[in-house]
Specification:
The protein is α+β, with helices and mostly antiparallel strands. It has 5 helices and 6 strands; from the N terminus they run αββαββαββαα. The strands form 2 sheets. It has a 4-stranded antiparallel beta sheet with strand order 3-4-6-5. A two-stranded antiparallel sheet has the order 1-2. Strand 3 and strand 4 form a beta hairpin.
Length: 177
């Protein structure tokens, strides 16, 4: 049961990370979490190469720890195809977050719904695996098996409810802009 809960929790945590990557029209350093930069002959995470701050509500400022990496960071952000154009200014990179129009907002809401459904599918898959494990356990009586399956279903419902709530909050965040 603990293993099942842990796997469902990991699915929910992954969903939370994916939601952070969906932009809401406000500057948020988390939208750059997935950006990989090619420097020093390897691919590194942007957070390992620079500090990211929010000097204005609609702007991100990236200051590399090594000023020579500014151009590489700018190129990596462009390559990540996040929907905005980085501006390299000497030893820093600025990103002006464009205002969201209705079509972009709808696209982001669709992305949230797709991610939510993928998360629910992964949670249900964990449920299926747990139920198969319960059914295969020859030491459990029929009543114990039914009781265990009921507990697994309660866990599944709980985690799906949490995912729905997270998606609803993100959609509200998008709608309030």
């Amino acid at each position: 049961m603990n293993d099942t809960k842990e796997k469902m929790q990991k699915g929910l945590e992954h969903f939370e990370v994916e939601l952070k990557n969906i932009r809401t029209g406000r500057a948020n350093p988390a939208i750059l979490d997935g950006v990989k930069v090619e420097v020093y002959g390897t691919s590194m995470r942007l957070q390992d190469l620079a500090s990211v701050s929010v000097p204005e509500p609609m702007q991100l400022l990236i200051v590399p720890f090594d000023a020579g990496n500014s151009a590489a960071i700018g190129k990596a952000i462009e390559k990540a195809n996040l929907g905005f154009q980085p501006i390299t200014e000497g030893n820093q990179v600025r990103i002006n977050i464009p205002p969201m129009d209705g079509s972009i907002r709808e696209k982001m809401i669709r992305s949230i719904k797709e991610l939510l459904e993928q998360t629910k599918v992964s949670i249900r898959q964990v449920r299926k695996d747990a139920n198969n494990h319960i059914k295969a356990d020859k030491e459990l009586s029929e009543d114990d098996k039914k009781h265990q399956e009921k507990k697994v279903q309660e866990l599944t419902d709980d985690f799906c409810k949490k995912a729905d709530e997270m998606a609803r909050k993100k959609e509200e965040e998008l709608s309030s802009i």
